[in-house]
Design a protein that fits this description.
This protein is of the alpha+beta class. The protein has eight helices and four strands; from the N terminus they run H-H-H-E-E-E-E-H-H-H-H-H. The chain has two domains: about 140 residues, no CATH class; about 90 residues, no CATH class. The chain has a four-stranded antiparallel β-sheet with strand order 1-2-3-4, covered by helices on one side. Bound molecules: zinc ion (2 copies).
């Protein structure tokens, strides 16, 4: 006979196993669909939406069903309309756009984004008078539509990860110099401020941090984030004058 605590332990193990399978499924689905070199990026996209269960379900549904049979990576998800926890989504893949309906209960693939929305029931539910009003709203680039992406909701520095209003980690290439307003880890102000030609030791680095704090460092603002990828640019100060 099982003792009570053993029973509880088995229950927890089962819960954990279930969670494990769920996670594995999405990752496996992605692995089947995307090119090997895109796999990490595809996972990162889902991770950006991991706080939003409906969005995660739409991505899962996309990878499980591949509506048009095209094996493409899902890149983004934008909100066209929202009502009482139900969403009308634009899903962007490498080369295509799709329309999805999603709620806590279900995910429904509507069709190709460019073909518009002809389902009157869905149109009216989301308050679109007719197909024309919907087409007007979705005529521009889907990048103009609101995102549920974590980065958009709570932006942080793409390189050092600090939140809005915080000081960057010293050496972050996104930090602006308070003297010249250039890139702090690349400009020559630190040599001017310290009166040296080279940063030769830790002590100079500490002194620089002091004068920097006295001047007042420029904290992270969302608009400082570069819109181009910064991968490969390692944080760090240039130790020698250019
Ligand atoms: Zn930073
Ligand atoms: Zn400077």
């Amino acid at each position: 006979m099982l003792k009570q605590h053993t029973g509880k332990g088995i229950y927890q193990t089962m819960q954990k196993a279930k969670l494990g399978i769920d996670e594995l499924e999405t990752e496996l689905l992605i692995r089947y669909v995307v090119k090997e070199e895109e796999y990490e990026e595809a996972l990162a996209v889902i991770d950006r939406f991991s706080h939003h269960p409906v969005a995660v379900n739409v991505f899962r549904n996309y990878y499980a069903e591949l509506p048009e049979g095209r094996e493409e990576m899902a890149c983004d998800l934008r909100v066209i309309a929202e009502k009482q926890g139900a969403f009308l989504f634009a899903l962007k893949t490498t080369a295509h756009r799709y329309l999805y309906f999603g709620s806590d209960e279900m995910v429904h693939y509507i069709g190709d984004y460019r073909q518009g929305l002809n389902d009157e029931e869905i149109l009216h539910y989301f308050g679109f008078k007719d197909v024309a009003t919907f087409t007007k709203k979705t005529a521009g680039s889907i990048d103009q539509l609101p995102s549920l992406d974590k980065q958009t909701l709570a932006p942080s520095c793409v390189v050092c990860g600090v939140a809005v209003g915080e000081v960057h980690i010293l050496g972050c290439p996104v930090e602006q110099c308070p003297w010249c307003e250039g890139q702090l880890n690349r400009c020559n102000c630190r040599f001017d401020q310290l009166g040296v030609e080279e940063m030769t030791d830790e002590e100079l680095l500490e002194r620089f941090e002091e004068v920097l704090d006295q001047k007042g460092r420029i904290v992270f603002k969302p608009e400082q984030n570069p819109s181009y990828p910064t991968t490969g640019e390692d944080p760090g100060l240039d130790m020698k004058r250019d």
